[in-house]
Amino acid sequence: MNINKLFPRLSIRLKLAIAFALLAIVPLAGAALFATQMFSRQLRVTATTTLEHDLELAQQQTAGRLQQVERDVEFLAAVLFRPLLMGATTREWAMAEAWLQVFLGGHPSLFQIKVVDENGVLRFVRSADHGRVGGSEGDGSGFYYAAQAAALGPGSTLVLPIELRADVEADSTLATIPAIAVVVPVHEPDSVLAGAVVGEAYATVLFDGIEDGSPSLQGTTGLIGSDGLYLYHSSRKRDWGSLLASRDEVDLADELSEDIARALRAGASGTFEAADSAIVRFLPLWTTATGAPAPVLYRIVPLSQLEASVVDFRRWVSLGALIMLGAVIGLATVGARQFTEPIYRLRRSAERLARGQLTIPVRVETNDELEDLAAEFTAMADQLTAHRQNLEGLVEERTQALRQTHAELSHILERSADAIIGLDLDQRVRVWNRGAEELFGYKAAEALNRNVADLLSSGPSAEQRYIAREVERRGAVVNLNTERKSKDGERIALSLTQTLIRDQDGEPFGYSLILRDTRDQKRLEEHLRRSERIAAVSVMAAGIAHELNNPIAVIGNRLECMEDEIRQRCSDEDGDFLVRDLSVLREHVGRLGEVTRDLLSLARNQESNEWGLVALDNVAARLARVLERTFSSRNIGLDAEIAEGLPQVSGSEPAIETVCLNLLLNAADATPSGGKVTLTIRRSADRSAVEIIVDDTGSGVPEELRHRIFEPFFTTKTSGRGTGLGLAVCRSIIDRHDGEIWVEDRAHGGTRFVVSLPLPLQETAWTERES
To answer: Hey, is 363 helix, strand or coil?
Structure first.
């Protein structure tokens, strides 16, 4: 055991002084403590015995007065009023009243006698001063006493605390008189209740002296009734103004613990110590009455009263100990200074050495181990000084190298185009470079100390589990394609590399997170994929166009021959009808030829030779006439809404007509029977383009398919009803016209395709001058 650990951080001189003082004071303090404990224990035993004697004396005195009142009332009931209740004349009642007056004069505790019959009728009331203190024919007390007597058997007695009202002649008011009522039932020979005799006694007379006791044991005295209410309390209820306490005046828990209060309410007797703070003694007040539990008299004496002499004794012992301690510490300090002075000199030299100052040789002449220690310390100090100078040069060199390395790393970190983020083990941001600021929009002050998952809205939970698993297993995740959200809510495609960082002991202390913007790369990859698809489509389109051209040419020739033959053989009326139908067929055959030429142009990436100004209102009117019978056969309405004064656009009229035709036929395929397709041609909002809008009342295009509908050979139609080339050709034609095409939902259901074709420069300039 190391004795030095018993002390806090103190000087060795003070420790020696304390040790000497303890050696001198501890035995004396132990003896004084033992004597004090013995004295306190004996004093407590004596006080407990005295308290029990005082309370028993008060109990005997009070119980004696109350038992005397009980015997007096029982005597009156048996000798005087029992015969009267069996049947008596008025003269006999008057004689009883006169005799009772003499009886009350010799018994000061009793101040009033009442007699009630079995029906609660008050038959007789007499007080010691010839007045009626608490009784009248209609006060209701007779019924109360009769009810209490009815519950008692022959030979039983009931003692009750009550309050009476008495007239005060000076101001004609009612005063409250606390009293004790002794109820003695009177039974006929066959045990039938004939009535009751009630003696009412002054509570102040009966309970006078319950606080008497030894002057050194003055405490709190209380009287608790059978219902747990205070009848008397030396500090809360001293005035006897009311014998019955209200509920808010009763709380034994304020004075006593729960187990003592429970025993007190039960009417037990005993002596307890309340948590080493007081002695509690309680006794039942009387035991002769058989109708109700007895009230309990108790007294609480604080132990502080008993230990006053012990406190004085302890005070004198402590004063003597302090004087002795001061003397011992003074002597010990003088002696300790002589022993410890060499040690302090060594300490001052060590402090100078620690601060890098030149050390002065320590000269100690003690002729013991301390002198040897001083010589060895001086030699060690000289060696340390030389070694320190070498270390300072090395540290300066390494520090300069570290500064340069740190500057290089800081420059690389700040100038990196990638977002470089440093995280602690709880995923909170510790480093946020300029690349992260530019990529995500958060300044470093906004991002530091925030959780990176909350800041950038981490990806799916499966991705997070994968990253955590790979980092734990391999120490890093490299070039993971994912997405994160910027400050303005944009989802950014990224390449993520996360690495676990360990200290020199191999313990992890954080993560490095490198996020590279891959949006341009993804756009380039998408453009390459689209170019590959278009190239493949071009090859297929060229083959299809070559295969279609020959049948289309044959069909065109046969239609011309049929027209000539009809004109020669049929009448004018029938011939005109057939010629009109054949002209419609020939027009569609011509359009097929134009489509094959567009396919060939798409495959060869060439512009159409038929390039000029196109009147879109004429195109719309012609298509409405051509498709009228097709739409009516499907029970689908076709409306054309063409704005007036539309300017002409620059382009290929057959190609634009092909776009409109494909969009209208697609709308017809998507519209159920009874629906409607609307073709709208109008100026754009900024008046720099003309918009071709095709609305249908179909089911719409699902959100997840919108990015694919312009791909070649992609179709949502059933097998055999579509090739998936229509919208791809439309997009190719619109791209050649420097326009735009997109799809959107209508407010009331269905799909809307919008084509925007720019106006020629001169038309735009003319429109601006007009506005």
So the answer is: coil
- Classify residue 306 by burial, with Cβ atoms within 10 Å: 0-12, 13-18, 19+: buried
Query: How far, in Å, CA of 312 to CA of 144, rounded?
Result: 58
**Is 165 in a helix, a strand, or coil?**
strand
CA angle centred on 426, ends 425 and 429, rounded to 5°: 90
Closest CA to 460 of 489, 442, 481, 479: 481
Residue 461 burial class via C-beta count within 10 angstroms: exposed 0-12, middle 13-18, buried 19 and up: exposed
Which of 116-120, 206-210, 351-355, 496-500 bottoms out in mean pLDDT, i.e. has the lowest? 351-355
Please give the sequence-ordered ranges of beta strands (E in DSSP) within 227-364, or none if there are none: 230-233, 270-274, 278-284, 296-302
> Of 326-340, 387-401, 559-573, 703-717, where does the model show the most confidence?
387-401
Whether the CB-CB separation of 264 and 256 falls below 8 Å is answered with yes
End-to-end CA distance of the chain: 104
Does 756 score more than 90 pLDDT? Answer: yes
As a three-state string, the secondary structure of 37-89 is HHHHHHHHHHHHHHHHHHHHHHHHHHHHHHHHHHHHHHHHHHHHHHHHHHCCC
Calpha distance 438→548 (Å, rounded): 55
Q: How confident is the model at residue 170 (pLDDT cuts 50, 70, 90)?
A: very low
Q: How far apart, in whole angstroms, are the C-alpha atoms of residue 612 and residue 632? A: 33
Identity of the residue numbered 609: N
Name the nearest CA neighbour of 220 among 238, 245, 244.
238
Cα→Cα distances 31→25, 35, 318, 324, Å: 10, 6, 12, 15
Do you know the residue count of the chain?
Answer: 771
Q: 130 in helix, strand or coil?
A: coil
* Residue 163, token pair as written in the block: 């309050």
DSSP type of residue 76: I
CA distance 35 to 39: 6
> Which residues, listed in sequence order, are joined to residue 754 by a DSSP beta bridge?
693, 742
Q: Round to whole Å and give the CA distance between 710 and 729.
A: 8
Q: CB-side exposure of 46: number of CA atoms within 13 Å?
A: 12
pLDDT reading at 691 higher than 90? yes
The arithmetic mean of pLDDT across residues 209-214, rounded, is 75
Q: What is the pLDDT of residues 497-510, one digit of tens each?
A: 989 888 888 889 89
What CA–CA distance (Å, rounded) separates 217 from 207?
19
| CA–CA distance, 133 with 168 (Å, rounded to integer) | 10
